[in-house]
Amino acid sequence: MESWGDVERREFLSWLARGTFGAAVAGGALGAGRPAAAAPDITVLVRATVIDGTGQPPARNSTVVLSGDRILAVGQHPEVPRLSGVRVVDLDGKYVIPGLWDLHAHSTFFESTIALLHVVHGVTGIRDMWGVPETHDLRRRVEAGEVLGPRLVIASTVIDGPGSPWPDVDLVRTEAEARAAVHRAKDGGADFVKVYSFLSPECYAAIADESGKVGLPFAGHVPARVPVQVAVERGQHTHEHLYNLFTSTSHNAEELYAQLTAMPDDPTDPNWWGLQLHRIEREAVATHDPARAEALFTRMVERGIWQSPTLFVERQMSLSPETILGDPVVQDRLRYIPISLRAIWLARMRVRPPRTPQEVAELLRFGDARLRLLNAMHEAGVGIVAGTDAGYTYVFPGFALHDELALLVRAGLSPMAALQSATRDAAQCLGRAHETGTIAVGKQADLVVLEADPLADITNTRRIHAVITRGRYLGPQDRTRMLAEIEAAASEPDEAPTATPDSCCHP
Ligand SMILES: [Zn+2]
Ligand SMILES: [Zn+2]
């Protein structure tokens, strides 16, 4: 390996000092004061337009200096000296944004396909909503630098109640079982406890209480029989899919929850409450009470509760199965999905009843009401984070995050706010704002280089020139090669681990 002596180090530090980087640079990061060391792994991005994620306007002709997995400096500079170990990349005309986070993803354990699809599309961090041992194993190997993959925040197994549509959940019927499930989550190394729609209010309260005792956040679906106001007071950290919001903000809310509670509790009963909840939620749009919504949103802000609306998957699942299966975009993207997962997706789609055009139109109208509600939440100051349900049926990892950003803008967020939902705000939601989410000195070296301005048109986030993950620069040729490798791996029959939960309960 080339050695970096005091001369090179001094020249580089002197160059850094001549720039207007606006922040002191620690010479220690470059091994100053030590004898000649191996050449550092430094990448200098020059002439870029930087959109740093803080909300500041784009900074033209900027330089970003990366040292290993850290951002060493950001600002303006004179010409870079030619030194061993220093790679200079000219990004004239390009836009640099922070690496994107998808805060609602599944099935990341397919490491040579799903995990890489995120990275190649600029999604350098994800929150996996159903942790299994394979997910933790992948995280260990990604952190050790053995394999390429997104940074991972990992949920527990889904904890749910009787009637759950998923066979592999941690099913709880009593408060004692609910508390025990929280301990299993803690012992399994989960970053947070994942709650789901079919939990009883009593079990949910026990999970909230026990999570606090073991020091884990809890997040996921607000259970169908728990008003959102109650979930906010209990401190459920993120609420997924905008579920239950119309029921909870109806001026008939108390009556609607009383109806749900009065319905049979037996999932085999044709009048089981679980079969009625989507209808009740849709009908509640007609009795929406904006003042009640405003009060709820204010309380969400005060309590630091986040919403992950997953607009794209809800919209897609409003369509008839044959529409989804016949979509040429869906067909084209399938080649990147492991064949075992393709089979699961297809089987799920085959058991969905077809929808009449009237039913689809009704669901899409409901989707529009959800967009309006989301915009009201955003304007009230509630934190919105981008999540996709990637890995769930026909939601393509990596691709979907860009679809989600476009829908957030369609809902009324500015392109900057949409971008922040997957960068600065995602980091804040995860408690990781000190290390990710914006382009700032000392933060992790995760960046996306775009061909065009995402603030002029949010769909420009799809026009990726390069991805930088943990300081590793993946340029156009690297990305093309990676996509070919993902496609090849997807057709291998052995990609499926033993457990393949990937789930949700969209209408
Ligand atoms: Zn999900
Ligand atoms: Zn879900």
UniProtKB/TrEMBL annotation:
InterPro entries, sorted: Amidohydro-rel, Metallo-dep_Hydrolase, TAT_signal
Top-rank taxon, per record: Bacteria
Pfam families reported for this sequence: Amidohydro_1
Signal peptide boundaries: none
Residue span(s) of domain Amidohydrolase-related: 96-472
Coiled coil: none
UniProt-listed PROSITE patterns: TAT
Protein name according to UniProt: Amidohydrolase family protein
Organism the protein comes from: Nocardia iowensis
Top-level taxonomy: Bacteria, Bacillati, Actinomycetota, Actinomycetes, Mycobacteriales
